Amino acid sequence: MTDDPVQIIARGPRAVAEAASRLLDADPLLEGVTYSILEEDEDHDIWRIDAFPTEPEEAERLRETLAAQEGLGVSVEVLADADWLAMALSGLPPVRAGRFFVYGAHDLGRRPVNTVNLRIEAGAAFGTGHHGTTVGCLHAYDALLKRRRFAKVLDVGAGTGVLAIAAARTGSRLVLGTDIDPVSVRIGRENAKLNQVRARFVHANGLAERSVQAGAPYDLVFANILARPLVWLSSDIRAALKPGGLAILSGLLRSQERFVRGAYLARGFRVRRRYHRDAWATLVLQRV
After folding, report:
1. Rg of the chain's alpha carbons, rounded to an integer?
2. Which of 52, 254, 255, 282 could form a disulfide with 250 if both were Cys (CB 3.0 to 4.6 A apart)?
3. Which segments in the chain show pLDDT lower than 50?
4. CATH 3.30.70.260 domain range(s) in the chain
5. Which pLDDT score is estimated for 83?
6. What number does CATH give the domain 88-287?
7. What is the tens place of the pLDDT at every residue in 207-238?
8. Phi/psi of residue 38, each to 5°?
9. pLDDT (tens digit, 9 = 90+) per residue, 124-135?
10. What CATH number matches the domain at 6-78, 3.30.70.890, 3.30.70.260, 3.30.750.24, 3.90.1310.10?
11. Rounded to whole angstroms, how far apart are CA atoms 167 and 108?
12. Distance CA 96, CA 206 (A)
């Protein structure tokens, strides 16, 4: 494998692609790898995995894991020496999710007047608003806002901060976003400044950090991460919520929904609503 930045692409039927994504999620050597899975051709049942390793060892492991799945075609493309992320983002359309309109700098002139407009610049963090998990969270939050408001909100794994900023823009008086990645924390703070909201972003690994505990208990917890971390954090998320408080969980595939749901039901939650977008699921749960 080359030492140049690469993108690994795998295409195949949905069942095979989802099985491959579960293997990626379960591999401790790949836990830091960014990848996406989406439907590329509905008529022919073609799903696509795009993975972006940062180390040659990760790239080789990804390629081997994907190539071992019968029915997946795998290719490796060397990324050009350019700001490919900025170039990709410049071509992304804005996203409408309920009352929320998520856009980048290239769409300043396209903002509607009757929406909650969120300017999100991704940089090196996850969460432009285009991914099915983020859209699912925004739709779920929009539906909840039709019945109530949330004074205190925690966003676990905030990435670009889009969910925390959405909460701050809709009246939450205390909003805290956490991430294990210092770069994401910086980007979240920059996006909060762009949107002129009072949302704090801190570097935290888990919910035991002092800054997280200081705001508890919360009325609402967002956690748009991955299935296994969602399960690991189920007890901590329950402890962070007020009785009757709500959790919006995503970052999980539909095939992982039962696994995550079972962990939360066992800890005293009940399911309020489920959302599906492409291969992804979003759960709205209430602490009993």
Report:
1. 19
2. 282
3. 1-2, 82-85, 87-91, 124-125
4. 6-78
5. 47
6. 3.40.50.150
7. 999 999 999 999 999 999 989 999 999 999 99
8. -155, 165
9. 445 555 577 888
10. 3.30.70.260
11. 21
12. 31
Q: In the chain, which residues fall in CATH 3.40.50.150? A: 88-287
Give which of 157, 171, 179 is closest to 249, Cα–Cα: 157
160, 154, 51, 228: CA torsion to nearest 10: 170
Q: Are 238 and 172 in contact (CB under 8 A)?
A: no
pTM for this one?
0.71
pLDDT of residue 87: 43
Give the model's pLDDT for residue 120.
86
φ, ψ of residue 22 to 5 degrees: the values are -65, -35
Nearest one of 109, 142, 103, 140 to 122, comparing CA atoms: 103
pLDDT at 286: 98
pLDDT tens readout for residues 169-191: 999 999 999 999 888 899 899 99
CB 5 within 8 A of CB 79: yes
244 vs 247: CA distance, rounded Å? 10
Going by C-beta distance under 8 Å and a sequence separation of 6 or more, which residues neighbour residue 62? 8, 24, 30, 33, 35, 51, 53
Q: Cis before residue 217, ω within 30 degrees of 0?
A: yes
* DSSP letter, residue 2: -
Distance of CA 284 to the CA centre of its chain: 15
272 neighbors 246 (Cβ within 8 angstroms):
yes
Three-class secondary structure of residue 224 per DSSP: strand
Bridge partners of 117? Answer: 101
